[in-house]
Amino acid sequence: MGKKKKRGESEAEWEPLNIERNKEQNDVHLGNGDSQEQKKKKKKKSKEMVKEENVLKEKPTVSIALAGSIVDNTQSLELATRLAGQIARASTIFRIDEVVVFDNIGSSVDSSDPTLEDGSNDDESGAAFLLRILKYMETPQYLRKSLFPMHNNLRYVGSLPPLDAPHHLRKHEWAPYREGVTLKDRNLTSGGTLVDVGLSKPVAIDQVSGPGIRVTVSMGAERSLDADIPHQVVSSSTPREDAGMYWGYKVRYAPNISSVFKNCLYKGGYDHVIGTSEHGIVMKSSDLTLPSFRHLLIAFGGLAGLEECIEEDNNLKGKSAKEVFDLYLNTCPHQGSRTIRTEEAIFISLQYLQEPINSVLQKF
């Protein structure tokens, strides 16, 4: 009995040791499981952080939208060209990233660019006319002959004051980036396409492309036109994102005002939309605080204002201007003239919004 008791005691002594050992082994297995889960979580978290960093890297954009019908009130082609030139100048001065020109076609869903249609006659809509002049003015002078065929509506563009934007570089100037147009020729050493960037000779790029395509070329910090060193083609937004340089505006067509919002090219669309009208609310610019937007849109109406544009749009039937826009502003109260022309309203409104917009941009 004594031996059995000792054996029982011995078993009793070993039992908690075995339980403890099993517990340790289980803890190790659980620990390994947790480690794998943690790795997955860390990997997911790092991806989310990279995504957030990319979003933060993207600087906010400012777009304007205006009705093409403003051209219909001009008395001659020369005056219409001057009007378009004023809009191009205002867009450049205030560093606008996108200009959207919309028609007042009630139910149209065709958002194709009307300037790409064949023909060189001057019988085109006001929106098509504005698009053509705005595109022409934004393009650096040394590229215009290659990118714009002869057209009757371009007759008076030579009389317009130049935009003198940062990407409109002279032949003797060197910059980290230049706009160029691809040529038919290839580089004999690298096989890459040659690009005319407005310098004494073309440069080679690191890819093969067809002729007549506008590209943004990274030129590097040092002035070098060595044909054996291919240059990199970058996104047109790279100078803005990486170097903080204003790099001109994009131009887009919309058949009606609802298409301006619906067909937005930016991911997520416009997150803050401002309408301008004499019927809008009156507020001092210094009292206006804009939300932290990613893509801001400022809209200007046609001859009868934004209210008419909304009424004629079948997609916005029954809606008021205050329902369509996040903010409906009168940027020029107590006006002396009964009417303010759209080209005038653009200058007035962009100056009015300059301080509120800059307050948001400084956060990025």
TrEMBL record:
It holds the Pfam family Methyltrn_RNA_3. Belongs to the class IV-like SAM-binding methyltransferase superfamily. Residues 18-27 have a biased composition (Basic and acidic residues). Residues 1-54 are annotated as: Disordered. This is Methyltransferase. PANTHER family: CLASS IV SAM-BINDING METHYLTRANSFERASE-RELATED, METHYLTRANSFERASE C9ORF114-RELATED. Signal peptide: none annotated. It comes from Capsicum annuum (Capsicum pepper).
